[in-house]
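Need residues for this backbone.
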């Protein structure tokens, strides 16, 4: 149990910010490489609370944070109040959280979430995900494309490579598909979005144009990225802030092979689902539970069918379980149009 407490403590943000119990339990399972039962997690957490190392917070599902010198002796409400006020401020200029191991990843994802929520402005909470997740998706596409292009450029420049001197492979779509990505049109690449789209007065129209360009270029993306920004009541400055938020250096830094943007995307989906609650029979299954189910099923090849696929968590975890061996086919159904689009983007 003491080892589990040490592992859990190492995942709590060192800057004193709070992290949700559900997310922390999921991160702990990731670190240990096995499912963590709720009772097991709560026993370790409560032991740290009793020892005066952690303090419980509020919110759906509860949260915890490190007991800092300023927090000692405070009640929970007194300690949490300043943090709640700070969470409503825009954090564009804030110093990015250091991403050192799993603890840094927890801090980064939480910081990004708090910053994104602070930029919501006049958008209804239930609708905000429709504007945030496509921006993360654009960032994800560009990062995957840039990584593969850099690999191909290295092979073209390497005299020992079969591709040495063959510049044409840099524009060969099959070379990108083999790595699970695609060629992103120049006007949809993140560097162009940051340098030319974000500063524009008509940034909302131009982001819509980027989404339309991708949809027209790739059949598999048609219907997933509708023009939603120009006709919305989202302020142009808030859209710019979102673009800047996902342009931080933390996304391009080396994190020991960890898929940072993937973790952020997964975290945001979970937080949006948690903030909305359960309405009309809709339920979000925590990642830790989906991962446990996949580990029990042990899919290696063939078909994976999820009759209530939601955002596609079962498919994503199955693919990760096989280490992307490309021997699985995914089939699912989903009643909600936006959730269906979200599932397609998630894959």
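Answer:
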């Amino acid at each position: 149990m003491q080892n589990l407490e040490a592992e859990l403590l190492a995942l709590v943000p060192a800057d004193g910010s709070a992290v949700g119990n559900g997310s922390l339990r999921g991160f702990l399972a990731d670190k240990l490489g096995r499912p963590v039962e709720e009772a097991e997690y709560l026993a370790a957490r409560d032991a740290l609370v009793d020892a005066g190392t952690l303090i419980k917070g509020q919110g759906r599902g509860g949260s915890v944070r490190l007991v800092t010198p300023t927090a000692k002796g405070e009640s929970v409400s007194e300690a949490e109040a300043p943090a709640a006020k700070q969470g409503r401020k825009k954090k564009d200029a804030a110093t990015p959280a250091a991403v050192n191991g799993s603890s840094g990843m927890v801090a980064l994802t939480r910081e990004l979430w708090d910053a994104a929520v602070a930029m919501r402005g006049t958008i209804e909470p239930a609708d905000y995900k429709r504007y945030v997740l496509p921006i993360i998706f654009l960032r994800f596409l560009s990062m995957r494309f840039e990584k593969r292009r850099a690999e191909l450029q290295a092979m073209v420049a390497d005299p020992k490579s079969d591709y040495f001197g063959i510049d044409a492979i840099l524009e060969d779509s099959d070379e990108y598909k083999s790595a699970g990505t695609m060629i992103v049109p120049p006007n949809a690449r993140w560097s162009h979005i940051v340098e030319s789209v974000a500063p524009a007065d008509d940034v909302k129209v131009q982001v819509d144009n980027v989404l339309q360009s991708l949809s027209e270029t790739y059949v598999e993306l048609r219907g997933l990225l509708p023009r939603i920004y120009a006709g919305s009541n989202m302020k142009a400055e808030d859209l710019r802030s979102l673009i800047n938020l996902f342009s931080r250096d933390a996304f391009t830094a080396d994190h020991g092979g960890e898929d940072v943007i993937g973790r952020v995307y997964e975290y945001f989906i979970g937080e949006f689902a948690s903030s909305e609650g359960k309405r009309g029979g809709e339920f979000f299954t925590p990642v830790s539970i989906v991962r446990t189910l996949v580990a029990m099923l042990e899919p290696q090849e063939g078909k994976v069918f999820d009759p209530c696929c939601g955002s596609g968590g079962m498919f994503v975890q199955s693919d990760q379980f096989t280490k992307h061996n490309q021997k699985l086919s995914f089939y699912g159904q989903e009643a909600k149009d936006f959730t269906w689009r979200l599932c397609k983007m998630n894959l």
